[in-house]
Design a protein that fits this description.
Layout (H helix, E strand, L loop, with lengths): L2 H24 L4 H8 L3 H7 L4 H18 L1
Length: about 70
């Protein structure tokens, strides 16, 4: 495996990790839960996501659950 392949693989793994984090947040867990599960600090999770991203996801999840409750 050459250096370019390694860089590509590492980049893809980083995207998978971010997608899994998004899925966890969308499932209703907060950043604190995610940090604890990964064994890192809340600050580390915050640095891994765009500013305010977790709050936006939480709002979407709340709206979804409210609409499902009304249905």
């Amino acid at each position: 495996m050459n250096e370019d392949n390694v860089k590509t693989l590492l980049q893809e793994m980083e995207w998978v990790r971010k997608l899994l984090m998004l899925q966890t947040l969308a499932a209703g867990y907060n950043q604190g839960h995610l940090a604890q599960a990964l064994g890192v600090s809340d600050a580390t999770i915050s640095r891994m996501m765009p500013k305010g991203f977790a709050k936006v996801v939480a709002k979407i999840v709340e709206q979804r659950s409210n609409s499902e409750a009304q249905a």
